[in-house]
Amino acid sequence: MEKFPESSSKGTKRRRDEDSDAGNTSSLEDDLTFTDTSVALRIMRAQFPHIQKGSVEPFILKSQLYSSVKDRTQVDRELESLRRDKVLRLFKLNTGQDDHAVMFLDDYLNQIDRVVKRMEGKKVEEYEVFGWLKTHVPDSKLETSIEHQELDTKWFSVLRMVFLMQCSLLSLGGKTRQLIDPNMYWFSIPNIGSHLKGIVQGRKEIISLLSRRRYKEMMLSSLEKKRLRTSPLDVRFHLRDLIGSGHLRTDQAPTGLIIRVSKD
Fold it and tell me: What pTM, to 2 d.p., does this model score?
C-alpha cells in the first residue's frame, strides 16, 4: 500500500502540489477506476470541488471509493490500515444510513484551526478543548464516535461538550430506527452543513434528470458537463457517489461510457 509522508508543513505542501497536478483531468472517464485505495484517495482529494462559501477541507465519501476500487473488501481493509496509521479519519454523516466521509488527518487538523481562528476572543478554558481535540482524539480515539461516559469527567465538563457541539466538532449521534442515543456523540467536520445538503439534493437531481430520459441513461461526456442547480458540489463528485452506492451503473459503448439508473 502507498505510504503517505508524515505530517509536516513541507511534506504536506509537496503532497498538495502533487495532488493539484493529479486533479487536472479532462473527464471522469479518464480516472474512473483505480487498483489502489491510497491512489484513489489522493486523486479524489485533488478533484474536490473548490467552493468559496463555507470553507471546508477536502473530504471523500466512502461510496466514491467503492465506485473506483471494485473490491469493496480491499477498500475497507486499506481504509482501516490508514486509519490505524493515523493518516486519515472517518466521519459518520447524516445524509444516509451508511454514509461516511474520509478526511486526511492533516486536513482535519487544519479544519480545527479554522474554528480556533474563528473563535478568537473566547475564554482560555474553551481553547483547552481544541488542544484535547488535536492531541488526544487523533492518538486515542480512532472511532467515528465517543460515548458520553468517556466525556463525563471532572475536566471535560458539560459546558465543554456543548461548546464543541456549538463549533460543529461534535454532534449527538447514534441514530437507530430514527431515535437518537443520548449517550453517543459523533466527531464531525465543521462548516460541512451546506455540503451535506448538497450531497442529498445533488443525488436527487441527477437521478431525476436521468429518470426523465426515455432509457434512463446518458453519455458520461454529456452528463458531466451539466451544472447542478441544487448542489455546490460538481457532477463528478455526485457520479462517483451514486455509482459506488449502486444507484447508478456504467456500461461501455463504442462511443464512450454510458451512465444508467440501476434497476430497483
Answer: 0.84
